[in-house]
Amino acid sequence: MNKRKQILLGNLVKRMRKNRGLSQQELAKLIHTSPTNISRCERGESEIGWQMYLQLKSFFDFDDEDIELEQKIIEDKLLRQLQGVRK
Predict the structure, then answer these.
(1) Distance of CA 63 to the CA centre of its chain
(2) Which domains, ranges and CATH numbers included, belong to the chain?
């Protein structure tokens, strides 16, 4: 997985986790990993293994298209922030 996709995946996981009202610790328990792995994934700091990727994909029910759509969500958020600064 390239760095760009790692970052997009991390943002997607963080957004979906928060939408479900889960802490990193709670998510880690649910998918049988450590909170440190969740944190690193969300920050795009390290490439996650296939097992964790498949666990996240299954838990949150996302696909590769959702990861790519995350780019648009990030761009829209940044645009709104920039527009707020200009006012």
Answers:
(1) 12
(2) 3-86 (1.10.260.40)
